[in-house]
Amino acid sequence: MSEPLPPFQRFLDAHREIVWRFLRASVGPVEAEDCFQDTFVAALRAYPRLRAGSNLRSWVLTIAHNKALDSHRARARGAIPVAEPAAVDRRTEPSPGARDEILWEAVEELPDRQRSAVMLRYVADLPHRDIAAAIGCSEEAARRSLHEGLTKLRKAVPA
Amino acid sequence: MNESQPPQEHEMVAEALRRGPGASASAAGALGGDAQADVERAAAGAARRLADRAASEGLADVSYAPVDSPFGPLLAATTERGLVRLAFPEESIDTVLERLARHLSPRIVESSAPLDPLRRELEDYFHGTRRTFEVALDWSLIGPFGRRVLRVTSDIPYGGVLSYGEVAAEAGSPRGSRAAGNALGSNPIPIVIPCHRVLRTGGALGGYGGGLDRKRYLLELEGAIE
Q1: Which one of A64, A83, A102 terminates a domain?
Q2: Counted domains in chain A
Q3: What percent of chain B has pLDDT over 90?
Q4: Across residues A27-43, what is the average pLDDT?
Q5: pLDDT tier at A98 (50, 70, 90 boundaries)?
Q6: How many domains does chain B have?
Q7: Is B191 helix (H, G, I), strand (E, B) or coil?
Q8: Measured between alpha carbons, how far is residue A79 from residues A83, A104, B114, B119 in Å?
Q9: Is B135 helix (H, G, I), strand (E, B) or coil?
Q10: What is the DSSP letter of B80?
Q11: For residue B1, is it within any domain?
C-alpha cells in the first residue's frame, strides 16, 4: 500500500521554496507572486485527484513551468514593462552585479523550451527525466534544449 | 560532460543560475541581507497568502490554526459546515492533519481567520463570561452511535453533569455506559462538545481524553464541582 497524499499544507510547505526560486528566476520577482498563486491554486484544485505516490515536486514544477510560459506569452502580447534595463557598458570589465544582469537578460531572451530546461535543471534541480516530463518532450530533446540554452548563456556572459 | 566547453566558465554560469536573479555577491552585500534568507521569507509569505486565499475563497475543504487556551495552544480545524476538530496540545499535529486528510479531504490549509469566531468564544468561555458555544459544528468525523451520545452530551447545560449510564440511556444505547464512555472518549471536539460534563454515578470523575486534571479544571470553571 502506497503512502496516502499528505495534507495540502504539508505539500505547500515542502515545495514553496523551490517553486518560488524557479518562478523568480523564470519570470522575475514581480511576476513571480502571481505565478506562484496561480500554480498552487491549480495544484489545490487538482490535488485530491492526484495518485498517491506521485512525484509531487516534479508535478508542481510542471504546473509552475506552464504558468511561467503563460506569463511570458502574456508579456510578449501585452508588452508589460519588465524591470528597468540596467545601464551596462559591455566594453569594460563588468562587475559581478552587471554580469548577473547580462545573464538574466540572456535568460529572458532564450526560447521558451530552452529557458524552461535551464531553469528546471539549475534552479529547481530536476533530473533530465522530470524536465522532459515537465516540458512534454523526450529526454533526449530535453538534454538538447538544456545544452543549447546553456551554450547561449555562456556566450552572452563575458568571462 | 561537454568537452568543448571550458568547465570553469560553465560552472560560473551554473552557479549564477543557482543563486537566482539579483543575488550576485555584490547585490546581496548592497542589500545588507542574506539572499537565501530573503528567498525563504518571500516564499513563506507567498505560501501564507495562498493558504489564506484558499481558505477564504473556499478552495480548501479544511482550514486549521492554533487557538489559545489555558491548556496551551489547541489545534482547531474547521470545514465549510463548521468546527470539525479540536485537539489538545500533546496530540501530534501531523497525526491530526493526516487523519483529517484521510477521513475528510487532503485539501487542508493553515489559515487563522476562519477560526476567529471560535477563538473569541473560547476566550470568553475560559474567562467565565460565556456559557454556551455558538460556532457551527461539523459532525462528519463522528459515527452514528457517537452522534447520538454526543448530541445528548451537547444538551447538558453549563454547570450540570450526567452519569455515563444516564447519557447511554438517553442516547438509547443498547450497549450501556461502557459504549457511551468509548464514544465520549473519542469526541473529536472536546470542550465545545462538553464530554467533561459526564461523570461516574456517585460523582467520581471517570475518564477524559485530555487528562483528568483538565476535566476537573473545566468542571470547576463551570462551578459543577468545588
Answers
A1: A83
A2: 2
A3: 74
A4: 95
A5: confident
A6: 3
A7: coil
A8: 12, 18, 39, 47
A9: coil
A10: S
A11: no
Helix or strand or coil: residue B158?
coil
If one counts every other C-beta atom within 10 angstroms of the C-beta of residue B134, the result is 8
Are A63 and A107 contained in the same domain?
no
User: Which residues share a beta bridge with B75?
Assistant: B66, B87
Give the three-class secondary structure for B108.
strand
Q: CA-CA distance, A153 to B5, in Å (whole number)?
A: 12
Is B2 a member of any domain? no
Which ipTM score applies to this complex?
A: 0.88
CATH number at residue A55: 1.10.1740.10
For residue A17, what is the nearest residue in chain B, using CA coordinates?
Answer: B43
Among A83, A107, A127, where does a domain finish?
A83
Q: Which domain holds residue A14?
A: 1-83
Range(s) of the domain holding residue B172: 142-226
By Cβ distance, the residue of B18, B46, B59 closest to A36 is B46
Least Cα separation, residue B177 to chain A (angstroms): 36
Identity of residue A99: R
| Single-letter amino acid code for the residue at B28 | A
Q: Is the four-CA dihedral B115, B118, B123, B126 of positive or negative sign?
A: negative
Q: Please compute the mean of the pLDDT values over residues B9-19 and round it to a whole number.
A: 80
How close is the nearest chain A Cα to the Cα of B93, in Å? 11
Read off the CATH number of the domain in which B193 is found: 1.10.10.10
State the pLDDT at residue A157: 86
A29 contacts on B by Cβ (under 8 Å) = 21-22, 42
Question: What pLDDT, on a 0 to 100 scale, did the predictor assign at position A54?
Answer: 82
> Would you report the helix, strand and coil content of chain B in percent, each value rounded to 5?
50, 10, 40
Whether residues A53 and A66 share a domain: the answer is yes
